[in-house]
User: Fold 5-cytosine rRNA methyltransferase NSUN4 from Equus przewalskii.
Amino acid sequence: MAALVVRGVRDVLKRADFATVPRRHRHKKKWAATEPKFPATRLALQNFDMTYSVQFEDLWPSIRVSLLSEQKYGALVNNFAAWDHVSAELEQLSARDFVNEAISHREREPESGQTAVPSPASLACSPNLRCFTFPRGDVSRFPPARLGSLGVMDYYLMDAASLLPVLALGLQPGDTVLDLCAAPGGKTLALLQTGCCRNLAANDLSTSRTGRLQKVLYSYVPQDIRERNRVRVTSWDGRKWGELEGDTYDRVLVDVPCTVDRHSLHEEENNIFQRSRKKERQMLPMLQMQLLAAGLLATKPGGHVVYSTCSLSHLQNEYVVQGTVEFLANQYSIHVQVEDLTHFRKLFMDTFFFFPSCQVGELVIPNLMANFGPMYFCKMCRLT
Assistant:
């Protein structure tokens, strides 16, 4: 009997405690709102299966399995370190400098009777870059970079395809250069490695990402070099750069925010396929067009721009380039010529797999034998 009384009292107290809590303070878990049914990585794969199977047709299964497999890296030699010693160590690992191998092969072409007639602008590669990769089919990994004898890191590990936009930009000594969307800093570092930058503006809207960029510069570039090259790191809205510094730069790199296809399949953190970022994802092509237009407006007439993404989507690649060129012609009477990079593709086809059917620009597609990319890049010359 006593047990029944105690149980009854407990029930009354429970009801009383609950009743004293105002309705607005009661918590009821909203499963549909707080816990997405699928992780963002799965949503990304579903999206890619729907769109890329149409865009790439028979190539998609091979690209798909490569995207889901371990990525391959290159080692960008730091010219501010003891680069000759670093290069020798990388060669001992059976890695090869794909940049200088390709350029040496091109210089030997006339001797073998082959003819090539691309424009000088298409032929020009940014100089002094050394990047080592393992041969096709070799899935060896580079050791982590270490601090060298000169107080800076020996090399920078990056997707070797990420170097192609910098190579395509064709820097010349004394150029004024803008890296409009610079973080996390691999391409900015490569621009400095060329030794061509009279001054370099490195911008990214995100202050946390420019913080990462600053760390890369401090780890790889001596202070006197940073000052001599007048490296300026900013966190401005890149879409307004044409208004801020119009007709200013000889070379502009516009490596825009995109769906970051490989990252989206492997990482939940900062994944643009999160349900809360759906609108942001849908607006990407518009943002990319605005950034490319700003980059072209910031370029001097006669200067060059390279647009790049790490996405396979033609909506973010060729369509953005074509739409921006048309927009500038109609709204600003500014004429832009898209450069033919066919020779550039042939130059590096021993290292990368290229999609053969881009309307404009070039696209590195992942392949298990050389699992770099994706990396799209397109070179333009501002004529007026």
Remarks:
- The radius of gyration is 25 Å.
- The chain is about 40% helix and 15% strand.
- The longest helix spans residues 2-20.
- Residues 70 and 371 are 8 Å apart (CA to CA).
